[in-house]
Amino acid sequence: MTTVDRTQKLVPAAVSNLQVNRLATRMVAGILAALPVALALPAEALQVRMTPANPKLGDTLSVFISVDNPGAGASPTVTSSDQTYPAFEVAPNQYRAFIPTTPLQKAGKRTIRVSGNGQVRNLLVQVNSRKFPVQRINLPPGKAGVKATAYELKRVSEFKALQTPQKYWNGIFIKPNTGRISTIYGVRRYYNGKFAKDYYHRGVDYAGPTGSPVVAPAAGKVALVGRVSEGFRVHGNVVGIDHGQGVTSIFMHLSRINVKEGDMVKPGQLIGAVGSTGASTGPHLHWGLYVNGQSVDPTPWRYQEFK
């Protein structure tokens, strides 16, 4: 075979390799061009998780939302049972919303809808039932049938509705009094033989002696101070602390008040003393914890951190 013949036979192979190389180059370029888009999709995804894993009536549900898009701007929206709950930024592009549950609600499945960054996520949550004790209370003459004044109801309602953007508390809540717990959260009651419909014990009672210290369970701002002399017939002498982001504490039946509205308090700081003012059968402290206007069980807040 001549040299020319060998060259002619080699040319087709050379052309084939060139074509293969060009094709490979185009494929790699195509992959690289598509790669940023593929990586961007998960980054824009709305990631949602909730605690506790197995909630029961009275628990506070924490909904955590991650939005990896710094330019989104607006906070996510969280809704459940036609109620919208505020979502507060707790870290860069990380949000948290609290959803309260109460003994008056029905156990079962409920949907939590989270909207943000043009996306929607639906969480199906099973809220388990819980048995609450029944208690019979006999109020002494003069305290049976006592009704709150319009001023009292207005001040307390405004206090419980607070949703201050700033978060004051940090870590777990501490006991506001060293006395034994005499009544737990959620108890249903008969007052002087009559069942209190749509009522449940909205807090925890501590059977401390008259004059024993009442301290702030967590940091916050004193947003309510009320006295019997001002018309607080049911609550008695009362202090309300705003812990921020829809979380408030109320302390009732005090014999003494040691703070004023506007004061900033720290965990363990003295705010008053146990008493029996208002609708009370004897000396005790009533501590109620409210989340977005609804009374929740304070006990979990004492044993786990709500961030």
Sum this structure up briefly.
Residues 200-298 form the M23ase beta-sheet core domain. By secondary structure, this protein is α+β, with helices and mostly antiparallel strands.
Brief descriptors of the model:
single chain; alpha+beta; globular; four-stranded antiparallel β-sheet; 307 residues; eight-stranded antiparallel β-sheet; disordered N terminus; 2 domains; Dup_hybrid_motif; Immunoglobulin-like; M23 family peptidase; M23ase_b-sheet_dom; Cell_wall_metabolism_enzyme; 3 helices; Glucose Permease (Domain IIA)
Task: Write up what this structure looks like.
With 307 residues, the protein is of the alpha+beta class. It has two domains: 47-127, Sandwich (Immunoglobulin-like); 134-302, Glucose Permease (Domain IIA). 19% of the residues lie in helices and 36% in strands. The chain is built from three helices and 22 strands. The chain starts with a helix and ends with a helix. Mean pLDDT is 86; it is low at 1-21 and 27-44. Residues 200-298 form the M23ase beta-sheet core domain.
What is the H level of CATH, i.e. the homologous superfamily of the largest domain?
A: Glucose Permease (Domain IIA)
Q: Which stretches of 5+ consecutive residues score pLDDT under 50? A: 1-21, 27-44
Number of extended strands: 22
Please report the number of helical segments.
Answer: 3
**C-alpha termini separation:** 85 Å
Rg (C-alpha, Å): 30 Å
Helix content: 10-25%
What's the level 1 CATH class of the largest domain? Mainly Beta
What would CATH call the architecture of the largest domain? Distorted Sandwich
Q: What kind of sheet is the major sheet?
A: 8 strands, antiparallel
Tally of discrete structural domains: 2
| Structural class by sheet pairing and helices | alpha+beta
Gross morphology is globular
Overall pLDDT level: 86
CATH topology of the largest domain: Glucose Permease (Domain IIA)
Order of helices and strands: HEEEEEEEEEHEEEEEEEEEEEEEH
Strand content: 35-45%
